[in-house]
Every structure is written in C-alpha cells, then in structure tokens.
Amino acid sequence: MEKYRVMEELGDGTCGCVYRALNLENNEIVAIKKMKRKFYFWEECMNLREVKSLRKMNHPNIVKLKEIVQENYELFFIFEYMEYNLYQIMKDRQSPFTEAEIQSFMSQVLQGLAYMHKNGYFHRDLKPENLLVTEDFIKIADFGLAREVASRPPYTDYVSTRWYRAPEVLLQSSAYTPAIDMWAVGAILAELFMLCPLFPGESETDQIYKICCILGTPDCSTWPEGMNLSRVNNYTFPNIFPANLVDIIPNASLQAIDLIKQLCSWDPRRRPTAEEALYHPFFHVQTWVPCPLRDPLHSKSNYSEGTPPKLELKLWDCSSEPDELGLTLAVKSSVSHLDTDHQLSEHARKELLYYSGFHDHAGQSVFWPLLFPDHSAADEPIRSSFQSGCTMDSQVYRPTGGVLQPAVFTTTTPQPNVLDGHTFGSWMTLSSPIQPGLYL
C-alpha cells in the first residue's frame, strides 16, 4: 500500500471504511475500501462475494475494481474514484431534477443492472448511497451483499436498506429473486422526482404499512404468495385503499408513474426485469413502438400462410396556421382482397399515431398510442369498402412541457381515395392544437 497516499475519509460502513487516495505512481485519484475484519488467507479474500462478483463484471455502469491488496492481515479494495453518491446529490439539490436527468440516471442504472443479472448476480442492496455519480455518469457500487442468481435458497432475510426493501423480503421470504432489485429501482425512481423517500418506514412493520398507504392492501389476486407469507408470519395487512401516485408525485409524467407502479408491484413476478424496463415508454417517448403495425382487416388465418401484410403510414402537414398542426394520415394496406368482411379483433383496437417533423425540428419524431374506445359497433363486421364514414373520438397523450397530457383527436373515415396512383384503404384526417416545439 506504499504507492497510495490517503487524502480523506469518504465514509464508514458496516464492513469497511472508504477513503479517497492518490496513486503516487500515476497520480490517479482512487477510492480505497479497507475491510474491518482480518483476513489470514488469500483464498479467503478471493471467496468474498464482492470480489467474486466484481471480478466477473466489466460494465461502464458498474464501479470498476482495480486492485486487491492484502497486507498485514488487512484487506484493501482499490476502486475507480467517483465524486458523489446519489444520496448526496439529492440531499443538496435545491430544485427538482428534470425528467431528462432522471431518465439518464435510471437508464444507466438499469443497463448496469441488466448486465449484472444476465451475468448471474443480483445486488440485494440497491439504494441511493450505493449509486456513485461523476458528472452525468452513474455506477452501481457496494457488492457486499451480492448473490448468485443460480444459488439455492434459503437466502438471508436481512438484505437491503429498509426503505428500499421489497415486501417479500420484509415478510421473510427465503426464496426471493432478482425482482427485489427492481423494487428498489422503483423506489429510487420515485425518490428522484420527490427528493424524499417513497416508503420511509421506521421499522419492518411500519415499512409494510407505508407501502400499503401507497399501493393499497394486497389480496389473493394481486399477490397470492404474499398472503401465504403473512399467514406464516402471523401478520395482518392493514386495510388501506391505494393512493393516487399522480397526487403524490405531481411533477412525474404519466409514463414515469406507470413505470413506478410496475416496478413497485406487490407480486415480484409482475415486476419488469431490468432489460424489460429499458423498453418502457418512459425512456422511449420518441422512438418506442409497443407492437408491430398490422392490418386489422386481414384475417388471422392468412398470417400463417406467409409473410404478414405490411401497413404503410404517411403523414402530411396540412396546416396553414403557425400555431396549429393539422395532420393527414394515409393508410395503405397490402391486402389485395378488400371485399371480404372481417372482425375487428380486440388487439387491433390499439394502433400507433406517428408524427414526424415539428415546424422547426424536422428531425424529431414522437409516437403516441391511439386508443379506440370500446363500443358496440366495434364488435360488428367491418367492411373494407367503407360505404359509410365513421367518426371516433380517441384519447391520446401528447407531451406538453415534458409531461404528457390527454388530448382528443377526431378521426374521420370517408370513401376510399386515390393518391399518386395508389389506392388507400382509408383516410384519417386528424387535427390537434399541438404547439410546435421539441419534446424530449
């Protein structure tokens, strides 16, 4: 350890102390974690979970272990140096984070977490203090409680800091999964918006109570395994109705609220994996496509006979007003036999509305889901000839100042039209008071 000069203490934890130090050989600033217990054999050092996990992982969003030093029965871990942890940044923050900043932080955390889970480990102690930040980069640190995914239960029930501890761990499940990391991610995501913890329990019992105050009381339909765990532990959930997260986190977009709800599901099987969470529209407002476009007039039986039909969408800016956007959406079907009656499936009621080319930002693109309301006419046969026009009001979401708001689009389907020599199955003319701007 002669080549390192300790400059200051950064923190004192249960297992060790962390110092900022200078590498005298190359003038590099590093972080040194000095373990508190004694280690008499090198093999003992190499068998530590933190060492085993970090030696196997190399990812830009996971802190890098540079060196391991054993000296006089003391063990030192030499890490790359990061300036802050996320808790310090939130504590010193004077104004809320922008949604773009939160998206950046959480996408990096999820990328590191997805890599970790894919390589056979889950962290078990995710919290803001263990997320290290330098400038705009964030990395997962402190793998002292990491465990192999393939390891066999029972697992210890005392893992993770209480505020970020999943309910199955609070109820002493001995067979939990990497989904406990996803619960912690959901709590951290909410905290980035609120700048205070979402579930600040003062004890294990109070922690469950705080969770019930937000999510409502679970039951056999929402979390059947939890009901068994509560009976085994002789615990009765308080009878509480769920709160409205929009009221609790008013500065979060609807996509952010939805992602928090999914990550903080009572049932761990309903939580998305880290990789799945990265595809959530919260991170992909501009490019996310929830399902492939398809022709609802094409029978399902024809899909198995060959390549699925293609659906072409073309949009034209028909507005003459500088403050209002008029959109014309042309749908060209590849189905050649349009004189056959088909049933409009339930799944076909959700398509995409795509818009490209704001007045001053032609390179930007935004997707909005176009949801058709349920009504009795939807169950009737739809004729491809469209002998009579139909009008449907659809709720969609459009970004306004970074937060998605509901807007009403009116869709009109008149007689078939011909444009540039192409026959289109239908025309839909949409207009909406969308102000020109760049939405992220």
TrEMBL record:
<keyword id="KW-0067">ATP-binding</keyword>
<keyword id="KW-0723">Serine/threonine-protein kinase</keyword>
<keyword id="KW-0547">Nucleotide-binding</keyword>
<keyword id="KW-0418">Kinase</keyword>
<dbReference type="InterPro" id="IPR050117">
    <property type="entry name" value="MAPK"/>
</dbReference>
<dbReference type="GO" id="GO:0004693">
    <property type="term" value="F:cyclin-dependent protein serine/threonine kinase activity"/>
</dbReference>
<comment type="similarity">
    <text>Belongs to the protein kinase superfamily. CMGC Ser/Thr protein kinase family. CDC2/CDKX subfamily.</text>
</comment>
<keyword id="KW-0808">Transferase</keyword>
<dbReference type="Pfam" id="PF00069">
    <property type="entry name" value="Pkinase"/>
</dbReference>
<dbReference type="InterPro" id="IPR011009">
    <property type="entry name" value="Kinase-like_dom_sf"/>
</dbReference>
<keyword id="KW-0597">Phosphoprotein</keyword>
<dbReference type="GO" id="GO:0005524">
    <property type="term" value="F:ATP binding"/>
</dbReference>
<protein>
    <recommendedName>
        <fullName>cyclin-dependent kinase</fullName>
        <ecNumber>2.7.11.22</ecNumber>
    </recommendedName>
</protein>
<dbReference type="InterPro" id="IPR008271">
    <property type="entry name" value="Ser/Thr_kinase_AS"/>
</dbReference>
<feature type="domain" description="Protein kinase">
    <location>
        <begin position="4"/>
        <end position="283"/>
    </location>
</feature>
<dbReference type="InterPro" id="IPR000719">
    <property type="entry name" value="Prot_kinase_dom"/>
</dbReference>
